[in-house]
Amino acid sequence: MSSTIASCVLLKGRPTLVKIETVQTRGIPRYTIHGMSAKNQQTLSHKLKTALRVLKFPTPSGAITTQISPPLEGLSTSTCQSLELALAASIVSIKNYSCIPKTTLCIGMTTLEGSIQSPPHIFALAVHAAKSGYTQLLVPESDAQDIATASRLPCLGIHSLSQLTPHTFSQIKQYVPQQQNLTSQKNPTFFHTFQNQPSALRAITLAVAGRHNLILIGPPGNGKTLATHVADELQPPVSSQEVQDVIVLNSLTRNSLETSPPRPFISPPHTSTITQMLGSKNGTIGWLQQAQHGILFLDETPHFSPAVLTHLLDPLETKKVSHPVRYNSNSITIAAYNPCPCGYSGFPEKACTCSEAEKNRYTKKITHAFKERFQLQVMVAPVSSTQLRSQKVSQESFSKLTKTIQRVRNNSAHLEQNHTAQHLLSKAHDRLCLSIRQHQAIIRVAETIAKIEESDMITADHIAEALQFRIQ
Ligand SMILES: [Zn+2]
Among 208, 201, 200, 210, which Cα is nearest to 444's? Predict the structure, then answer.
């Protein structure tokens, strides 16, 4: 007699499918699990035997051997917990209780009394199962509705191991995925504070609409941070294609059970290490991956370690980090810093007190190579407390702008430059000694401007505006 049950576990930070095969043979009654450490084996077999005994389950006689594949030798005891429901089901199924369909995957942990609870990161495990072809999940009833919605799979909600008999199993309630509420429009809280900084607001709009990386330069104060919050407000609601990525990341990093999460806004601390920023093969999810589909804000960029900034060059250019969770091209990176150590070079609020040497040392921290990973640069003035208080914002202009941004994002067409645009760009190229990256950035930004203006070609006006925001 044998049974096979599918489950899912977090292995080195990645959700991994697991096959659990249990066989019954004649011999001295005992329960053995192969494919995990001796400590985990002991903990799990004790728990399962106790739970099944408490529930007075007719456990099979003879020697019971369970094989877990792939082997999970290095797994912590807490990570193994997601397999407990499947292990119990596999033992119970031998005694002709083969009630769990082959296309159903089980995720759940059990108490010593046999009640079923959610293990950590259950959303990430459920979404992975859904993407791997399973058509139904058996999960803890307490979270079954949310798991169904997050994974878009029907879920059977089980609350006790006692429901694993054929009679009770058929009565388990099925939860179907619900529509996620993804259309809610944010109310602008900071948008009005940039009404009198049209150039900064335009750069932010272009960054959000075209998913361009943006450099904000300005004196100390709240201007740069507020500008980043405006960018966050202007982002369209997370789409139905993007939402599962965000759910998985939230589940892995914060163990969150939110089915309609907002776009991520990640502001890493200056002390972040390379691993914390980029993630690692043994399971750490970096800030960069966490910002997927949202904003990564590098506030006071020169305070980050030069090594971290150097390691960001490649992912900012290719927009790819593969481990442990793939990060793709949909996030926007915003870097913000002062123009000089005192912060007032080029601004009228205060006279700059820095020497040329001090200025040079400061600006050298942001290398040319780093700046070239950005497509837009703009100066941001501080926002006064009166501006912050005046709530005189036109909801209409905000809604109009967010609609435009959504329209541009949905437009994946590639626009050509007309003749005068080409001429202006080649003149600017020679006069400003643009690098290839800068040249490409200007075309990309000009294309976003053209789409905002609903033009079907990139014109000289679009190139001219893009040049104003070029990286310097
Ligand atoms: Zn200064």
Answer: 210
- Please name every residue paired with 7 in a beta bridge, in sequence order, or none if there are none: 18, 106
Q: Which residue blocks in 320-418 are alpha helix, DSSP H?
A: 356-364, 368-371, 385-389, 395-410
pLDDT at 83: 95
CA 425 to chain centre: 36
CA 306, CA 181: separation in Å to the nearest integer?
A: 41
Domains and CATH numbers, the chain: 2-175 (3.30.230.10), 191-410 (3.40.50.300)
Q: Ligand 1 centre and the CA of 213: distance in Å?
A: 25
| CA 363 to centroid of ligand 1, rounded, Å | 11
Mean pLDDT of the chain: 90
454, amino acid identity: E
Which residues fall within 8 angstroms of residue 273, CB to CB, at 6 or more apart?
305, 308
Question: pTM (2 decimals)?
Answer: 0.91
Residue 216 CA to ligand 1 centre (angstroms) = 16
pLDDT for res 269:
97
Q: Cα of 362 to ligand 1 centre, how many Å?
A: 10
What average pLDDT does range 230-240 have in this prediction? 92
Calculate the alpha carbon distances from 461 to 355, 360, 404, 418, 447 in Å.
38, 34, 19, 11, 11
Task: Give me ligand 1 centre to Cα 349, in Å.
Answer: 12
Residue 346 Cα to ligand 1 middle (Å): 9
Ligand 1 center–CA 137 separation, angstroms:
60
Measured in Å, residue 356 CA sits from the centre of ligand 1 at 9
Q: Specify whether the backbone of 188 is left (phi greater than 0), alpha (psi in -120 to 50) or beta.
A: beta
Calculate how far, in angstroms, residue 220's C-alpha sits from the geometric centre of ligand 1: 11
CA proximity to 114, closest of 45, 39, 178, 55: 55
Query: Residue 354 C-alpha to ligand 1 middle, in angstroms?
Result: 4
Distance in Å, CA 384 to ligand 1 centroid: 20
Residues with CB under 5 A from ligand 1 (ion): 340, 342, 345, 352, 354
183-209 average pLDDT score: 87
Cα–Cα distance measured from residue 373 to residue 370, given in angstroms and rounded to the nearest whole number: 6
Looking at the DSSP assignment, which residues form a beta bridge with residue 2? Answer: 23
Per residue in 367-379, pLDDT (tens digit) is 999 999 999 999 9
Beta strands (DSSP E) in 173-272 are 174-175, 214-217, 265-266
The token pair at 433 is 């000694």
